[in-house]
Amino acid sequence: MAMFFGISSEMSSGMIRGLGTVVVFVAFVGLTLWVFNSKRNSQFAEARLLPFADEPQQDTTQESATTRSTRP
Hints:
This protein is an all-alpha fold.
């Protein structure tokens, strides 16, 4: 256990930054492979069309019947 603390105290900030860069790079490569995986084309094609999906229509006839004018 004492050896581990000796090693961690000797790590420079450059080494920690380098390890952080490697972790971010591996995450980037993994995410890129996941996005461009051909198995997910159908899921992404469906998600691509979500902004164009129709929203459910609300029944406006009941709102206009219950709304009253405040004018005398």
